[in-house]
Amino acid sequence: MRIEPFALERWMTRYEMDVQWDIAESGIYPMSTRELLALLPEDERDDVHGRLLDTRLGYSEARGTGELRQLIAETYENTSPDEILVTTGAIEANFLLFNALLSPGDRVVAVAPAYQQLNSVPRAIGCEVALWHLRHNGGYFYDLNDLRALATPGTRMIVINTPHNPTGAMLSAAQLREIYALAEELDAWVLSDEAYRWLDLPGSEPLALPMRNLGPRGISTGTFSKPFGLPGLRTGWMAAPEDVVQRCWGLRDYITLSPGKLNDALATIAFRHRDAIAARTRAIVSDNLDFAEGWFARNSDLVSWTPPRGGLLAMMKYELEVPSVELANRLAEEYSVMLAPGSAFGYEGHLRIGIGSTPAIFSEGLQQTETCLRDLQASGVPMKRG
Ligand SMILES: Cc1ncc(COP(=O)(O)O)c(C=O)c1O
């Protein structure tokens, strides 16, 4: 397979290990193993620690342990553990689904901008990929009329992502139902990347139910990376009809074979304590949103944003006449701040910001960003016109 470089990953790996204030991250500040195990009730701790230490590190159950698949399945309607495949992150779930369900020449309609995998992989398979661009008018939103115009007869798959990376836009329950009905009309699949599931934000409407609940053409992918703050487990999943799971499992035999055994065990513990982890996430995010509100107000001559409606990401618009890669490089190299260049998403003049880092990192990262922008302004970089 020939595939274009994953632009944002390439850019991020240049700086992510070196900067002090990483506020570009797409997830919540990761939990440590100690923090995760501290969620166990005291009377279970010794027992669980002992079981983890005694775990024989053989190959794990290929689809993910029955216990983990059962827990995940229970969060969907009409879904059995046989309709869940535990994967190496949502990234593997998406990759397997594209490869199992698409053939060269198939028409795919994929949301744009997006986590690049969602359109690059179908394109690399040889599909004709039509991009469903979000609209921007005082906020980012999906226009279903645009989707209807693109999803012409013969469309094999509609690819959506809600809450959305990178804008924080969301599809409503009614819109999801419409998309499902359209897929039914077209005899197509809907692959819904729900990496940001459970990440409702204070003051926003609750997240709609997963696409998987709507019927057999609906496929949801999910992950421990974003809502749980456990990207290092490299554990995600798909919830799909059993024959689709079987086909993906068959492909997976050639790639990663099975989840890591300890990862599966830790993911199971995390799932059982989802509410406590969600409370940690909410506390981080609401502190950061409060700080951001004041910061954007203080710097409104230079920056603005549409706060995310869900998930952890948003686009920050800046008013200086400087390309976003140049600004992002300068921030990383001279101010030790990471904010992702908007050009990686087709939003020049913007930076992508994540609201999931610790409040100390988030606030200092924004303060340093302010210093950088003011320094540029003082050095004579002009403001954008119009
Ligand atoms: C929309 C979206 N989908 C999938 C992924 C992949 O996540 P992971 O493989 O860590 O589960 C990401 C990561 O940033 C993402 O933003």
Let me know the average pLDDT: 96
Question: What gross morphology would you assign?
Answer: globular
The CATH C-level name of the largest domain is: Alpha Beta
Distance between the termini: 44 Å
What gyration radius follows from the Cα positions, in whole Å? 21 Å
DSSP, total strands: 15
Oligomer description: single chain
CATH topology of the largest domain: Aspartate Aminotransferase, domain 2
Largest sheet: 7 strands, mixed
Describe the structure.
By secondary structure, the chain is of the alpha/beta class. It contains 13 helices and 15 strands. The strands form four sheets. Strands 2-10-9-8-7-3-4 form a seven-stranded mixed beta sheet, sandwiched between helices. A four-stranded antiparallel beta sheet has the order 11-12-15-14. Strand 14 and strand 15 form a beta hairpin. It binds pyridoxal-5'-phosphate (PLP). Pyridoxal-5'-phosphate (PLP) binds next to helix 5. The site of pyridoxal-5'-phosphate (PLP) has 13 residues, from helix 5.
Sum this structure up briefly.
This protein has helices spanning 7-15, 33-37, 42-54, 66-73, 89-101, 117-125, 144-150, 173-186, 242-252, 261-272, 274-298, 324-335, 359-378, and strands at 21-22, 84-87, 107-112, 128-133, 135-136, 140-141, 155-161, 189-193, 218-223, 236-239, 303-305, 313-318, 337-338, 340-341, 350-354. With 386 residues, it is of the alpha/beta class.
